[in-house]
Write a structure and sequence with these properties.
Elements lengths: L3 E9 L4 H11 L4 E8 L3 E8 L2 H10 L3 E13 L4 H11 L4 E7 L6 E8 L2 H10 L3 E2 L2 H5 L2
Antiparallel strand pairs: 1-3, 1-4, 2-3, 4-6, 4-7, 5-6
Helix pairs in contact: 3-4
Length: 144
């Protein structure tokens, strides 16, 4: 199984909260490979995939940020109409529930990459492999 670790950072929904996290990451010479932000009135969740997960979690926690690591599935599909729908159909046919997803840039203009948070990583990985969908490893993303 090719799960990738994603870091979720919980932030108050106030000015400069994101800036503080980004400064720590910059000062630690960490590269962000994928990023998503979800918010509510009172707080936000920053989700990132970086080139050094362990180091990032360590610096965030030392700076008193609430940071959690979650395993997600990352895929690379051709940059063509209908390819995401095809991948989602594969997951749906195996009754895999998708909690959220977001896109990120890869190294090729002929493909697009997605982070997919599902209820069953093992079932999702198996279904995607059977369906011929390329799954990315943490190392693949780190080297992008």
């Amino acid at each position: 199984m090719a799960n990738v670790r994603q870091i979720s950072v919980f932030l108050d929904n106030k000015p400069n909260q994101l800036t503080g996290v980004m400064k720590l990451i910059k000062e630690s010479n960490i590269n962000i490979r994928a990023l998503s932000i979800a918010d509510t009135k009172d707080f936000g969740i920053l989700r990132i995939i970086v080139n050094d997960t362990d180091k990032t979690v360590d610096i965030l926690r030392k700076a008193s940020y609430a940071a959690a690591v979650t395993e997600i599935v990352a895929i690379s599909i051709p940059d063509a109409p209908g390819q995401l729908s095809r991948a989602l159909d594969i997951l749906g046919s195996e009754n895999v529930n998708i909690e959220y997803l977001y896109a990120f840039l890869g190294t090729s203009d002929k493909s697009v990459s997605f982070v997919i948070r599902v209820d069953d990583n093992e079932n999702a990985a198996s279904a995607l492999t059977k369906g011929g969908i390329i799954q990315l490893t943490e190392n693949d993303i780190s080297e992008m």
